């Protein structure tokens, strides 16, 4: 028989610590789900021609003393890899953003629209699994809050704690499956996606 002599203060303290961790996990999950830093990398893009006062290595300069004269012969010495520049990008479930060369800011596009039509079903399954993952984490946090305020017996507290643990484990498994499905879709998009998006190099970002 389980003794009922465990101090209520200790039970509340343990439940409070567990609730704090559950809430922190839920907050991080929602932040990651809405962010666009699941994958980060670079694309090789052709350098634009330098215009006006543009200088630096991110545009192609005319090697001519009269660059502003359209009738003058313009010489361009960039060849091979010198004609390209690495453009940073980051992508998530909802959208993909890439930096604008020679300008500040980013250009964002819907990642769903970039995904090949044959793989969009898997992407939507990944989104549904992520939503269920967040819902289960929320259920676990609610159960922890109930345990924190429920002081009748040790047995009842342990039952709530055990059920919360099962819900949290299920949430973790769903989250893992959702991430694997997204990784599969992203790799297929890298291989079969639009030519003006395909990355040269990429790796997982902080929110993955």
The CATH architecture can be named as Up-down Bundle
Instruction: Tell me the span between the first and last alpha carbons.
Output: 45 Å
Q: Main sheet: which strands, in order across?
A: 4-3-2-1-5
Task: Give the beta-strand count.
Answer: 5
* Rg for CA atoms: 26 Å
Biggest sheet overview: 5 strands, antiparallel
Strand content: 5-15%
Q: Unreliable segments (pLDDT under 50, ≥5 consecutive)?
A: 1-5
Write the element-wise H/E pattern from the N-terminal end onward. Answer: HEEEEHHHE
Total domains: 1
User: Structural class, from secondary structure content?
Assistant: alpha+beta
The shape is: elongated
CATH domain class name: Mainly Alpha
Transmembrane segments: 21-38, 122-146, 158-182
GO cellular component, one term: plasma membrane
Membrane topology: Multi-pass membrane protein
Family: Belongs to the GSG1 family.
């Amino acid at each position: 028989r389980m003794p009922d002599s465990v101090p209520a203060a200790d039970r509340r303290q343990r439940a409070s610590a567990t609730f704090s961790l559950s809430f922190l996990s839920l907050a991080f999950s929602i932040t990651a789900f809405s962010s666009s830093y699941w994958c980060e990398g670079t694309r090789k893009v052709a350098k634009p021609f330098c215009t006006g006062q543009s200088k630096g290595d991110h545009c192609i300069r005319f090697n001519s003393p009269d660059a502003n004269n359209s009738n003058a012969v313009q010489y361009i010495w960039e060849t091979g890899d010198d004609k390209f520049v690495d453009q940073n990008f980051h992508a998530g479930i909802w959208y993909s953003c890439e930096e604008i060369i020679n300008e500040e800011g980013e250009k964002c596009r819907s990642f769903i629209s970039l995904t090949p039509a044959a793989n969009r079903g898997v992407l939507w399954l990944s989104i549904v699994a992520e939503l269920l993952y967040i819902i289960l984490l929320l259920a676990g946090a609610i159960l922890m809050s109930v345990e924190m305020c429920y002081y009748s017996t040790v047995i009842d507290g342990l039952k709530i704690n055990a059920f919360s643990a099962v819900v949290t484990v299920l949430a973790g498994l769903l989250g893992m499956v959702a991430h694997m499905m997204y990784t599969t879709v992203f790799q297929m998009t890298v291989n079969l996606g639009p030519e003006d998006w395909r990355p040269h190099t990429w790796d997982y970002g902080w929110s993955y």
